[in-house]
Amino acid sequence: MITILQTAQLTAAPNSQNSIWQMILMLVLLFAIMYFFMIRPQQKKQKEVRNFRDALTVGQDVVTIGGIHGTIKGIDNNIVTLKVATGVEIKIEKAAINPAGTQPAQA
Predict the structure, then answer these.
(1) Mean pLDDT of 71-82
(2) Hey, which bits of the chain come out as E strands?
(3) How far are the Cα atoms of 37, 53, 89 from residue 77, in angstroms, in the given order?
């Protein structure tokens, strides 16, 4: 009985080391897949939105995330002044401008 247990322990030791390496490899592969399919595309999209908001110009027609259409009349750091109607101007944050609903600036 004791020899069977000793033999089982000797044969189990190399397998347990292999299973640890297999587990580490699976975790690394899982993280790599998660990075390339979830994290990297999100960072890429955030960079595009940041570039869009930095490239806003006076006279550009935009749409806010609340659905308000207007023309940019002034930009001061993160505050944008929009003309939404004749004689009506509002101030909003740059972050409130929706890149998906806005046409690119015309040259």
Answers:
(1) 94
(2) 61-63, 69-76, 79-85, 88-93
(3) 34, 11, 17
- CA atoms of 100 and 103, how far apart (whole Å): 8
Residues 12-47: tens digit of each pLDDT: 555 667 888 899 999 999 999 999 999 999 999 999
b/e code 79-92 from CB counts within 10 Å (16+ = b)? ebbbeeeeeeeeeb
- Structure tokens belonging to residue 69: 């259409």
pTM across the whole model:
0.64
pLDDT at 15: 61
Q: What are phi and psi of 63, to 5 degrees?
A: -125, 135
Q: HSE-up of 84 (CA within 13 Å, CB side)?
A: 13
Domain borders along the chain are 1-54, 57-96
